[in-house]
Amino acid sequence: MIDRRHRLSISRQAKLIGISRGSVYYRPKPVSAVDLALMRQIDELHLEHPFMGSRMLRDQLNRKGFEVGRKHVKTLMRKMGIEALYSKPSTSKRHPNHTIFPYLLRGKDIKRADQVWALDTTYIPMAKGYVYLTAVVDWASRKVLAAKIAITLEAAHAVDVLQEAFSRHGKPEIVNTDQGSQFTAGEFVQKVKDHGCKLSMDGRGAWRDNIFVERLWKTVKYERVYLYAYDSVAEARSSIMQYLDWYNRSRPHSRLNKKTPDEAYGMMLPALTLAA
Known about the structure:
Blueprint: H1 10-16, H2 21-25, H3 33-48, H4 54-63, H5 70-80, E1 116-126, E2 129-138, E3 144-150, H6 155-169, E4 174-177, H7 181-184, H8 186-194, E5 198-201, H9 207-223, H10 233-250, H11 261-268, H12 271-275
Parallel strand pairs: 1-4, 4-5
Antiparallel strand pairs: 1-2, 2-3
């Protein structure tokens, strides 16, 4: 795909085919079997107890027989892209070029399809490595509008999956994300603005803002990911995308009056959209 001998620069070639330059130069770093086992345990503990920070996770891992310190747990959490979910003051220094937007959904009645879309990224364990799953979800209907498996946490992947959702489903009033660097990056923010949408961001580590998408990740992992030991990125991508398609078409939700996300999404579309 990328020809390193071509007269066009690597950066220009990457831009023309729609990938980031970082993806071209990225080389996966080997992860030890011990760290992979630790990351799998951290992932499961985080799904069940999202309020756990590095100290409590360390204690739980020690009880399970893993000899690991808090600093290493923090390093693995950073690599996985997760943090404890609870209300706390933001004490971290933000990137000067990354703007944090206010949370717009508090007290908002969300009952229509394409009223609010939520984006998030989660860690996906494999037999000998890991990947990241980013998805766009319609808030009211729970329908997964677009998704992408990638090997890095880059803004380019968030932009790609959002653009896919725009192309397939139009645009929402509000796009809601957490404060992950892939969502605060200028290229992602600009993509949202270019489509005339408002951008809303969860409070840093605030459980009440993240709980909706966290439930989706828990469903995906327990009903599909944890049942398989994926040997390759291609295998993980095929299996998870197949599951998400089934999830939309065939998995009823109690909060949707036993309707599937596809059924709920169709019923919740604004009348003007249906008429068109």
